[in-house]
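Researcher: We're reviewing a set of sequences before deciding which ones to prioritize for further study. For each one, I'd like a predicted 3D structure that I can look through quickly. This is tyrosinase. If possible, include the structure in token form so it fits the rest of the review sheet.
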Amino acid sequence: MHHSSLLITLFTFMLSAASELIEVHGVKNAGVRPRLELRDLAANTAMLNLFLQGLERFQATDQSDPDSYFEIAGIHGVPYRSWQDISPRPGASAPGYCPHFSNVFFPWHRPYLALFEQSLYKHILDVVRQFPEGDERDQQRKVADAIRLPYWDWALPLKSGPIIPEIMSNKTIVVKRPNGTEESIQNPLYSYRFHPHNPDELNDNVLKVSLSDQLYQFISTKRSPTSSPADNEDAPEDLKAAEERFSTGIQQKRDRLFNLLWKNTTYSAISNHGGQADNFEEIHGWAHLSIGGTNGPHGHMTETPMSAFDPSFWLHHAMMDRLIAIWQRLHPETYVEPQSQDFGTWAYSVRSTLDANSSLYPFPKSQDEMWTSNEVRDTRVFGYTYVELQLPKIQDIKAAVNTLYNDNPSFGKRSMDNGTRVYDPTADFIEYNANVAIDQMAVGGGSFAVYFFLGTFSQDTTDWDYDDNLIGTEAILSIKAPHGDSGPSLITGSVPLTRSLRARWENGRLESLDEDKVIPYLQEHLHWRVRRSSDGAQVPVSRLPSLAVSVVSSLIRPAQSEGEFPRQLTDTKTHPEVVDHNEGDGDLS
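Model: Here's the predicted structure for tyrosinase, in token form for your review sheet.
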């Protein structure tokens, strides 16, 4: 029997005596509207006012209600139990429903976000009903019908302001109630406060993922806390450190993001670790760790089982859904392919094969069937789209992507009369990358990061995130699984080197950007280190046999117009001499 058919049979059997299910349909009867970038939504006073009050009501819903913020967030991980009694694997003990490191990772999140969006919309309509009857209420309803879950674009150019916008970082915010009074409330985009706070319910008593810092003891969600809950159950947060982590790595992540959007490959390769050097799931993990914290005490976004309780989770995953949707529009010929699962979940067995027709648990399309990846391939099925997808031509979408994310780091060197080195953005150039592969369980199951430096760097690991010679990180958002619910899972990623090499050529530290000069320079100056997130300790490379680093290059032709993408002119070339020269470089000194 086909695996998905078996799951459907089990699912139907287990629901035979259950009550009516909450079906996932997104926002209905309001047309297809675009999800806006968070700052754009915040600029619309009427939209923001309804959105905040709707989210406030949503978060205040009784935590025992399956349609509550708490229960919907809990689908992702803890508390480890079935949502709406949807559990096709009796006795399953794997971490939540979310299929990390899977070919259906992003399709699974599409109905998940739609469920959150439809529940939020219901509460927004409750706010609208409190306005005086007549024209005012009618106008508020029109505003409400246009609201969709906003996305947080953490890859906007730095000139756009703080990467973590104030609407996310202010603890309180003023709203205008339907009766016309203004009121300062706890900002529902800042945190979620558990009510009641039941540590035993949140404790990861199956996998013990969070016992290192007892994250479940915090009474509200935290971002980069300065102490553990053992010291303070409502510990203060260091959002400045989170902002610095984002800003230090943002240029490299913008390069990675643009490379993923323009390079031709398969959906399975770019969506997760299905065989390509870089993928969207790895970039997604970097944002999780950057806002949650990576050095000692850390917040909910760093721990996968609890991440969905932080409001930033939903804004971040809307961003990832948007990126995938744009990629799909640019590459419509490829989608989810069959793939064996490295990890089991509450619904899928380890080593089972999932494809585009496999059921996406626990998201009912109707009372007797789940959504599938094929059925959620188009976002409009859930009543939303993105601004870029509304553009009429592929060239227009490419132009929009170029405007947002292409910093055009291409260069053809030439010297001016005064000897100043400049780059020519129209010339072909050699692109350099450091590719990484490592088992996601390499440090024992906790999250960690591989840091790349080009030059000397601090021996104090707490300084690494802000080191002047840090050129990129590969952040591994790790998960644990019970014995038998996981297999080997090699995570891959890529750190762009081109921008950093160009900067060193411009300031005279690198003689040329040709391979005969760059490769010896990398042999001398490229270093990598591994740091564990739970305590900020360095992990010697000699203890990480699965870690593999490679330096590669290829010749790139820049886009010839704003409606075009760059083109790769040569096959990718590997330079083993860089890694061979630096073998053992990451050991403790």
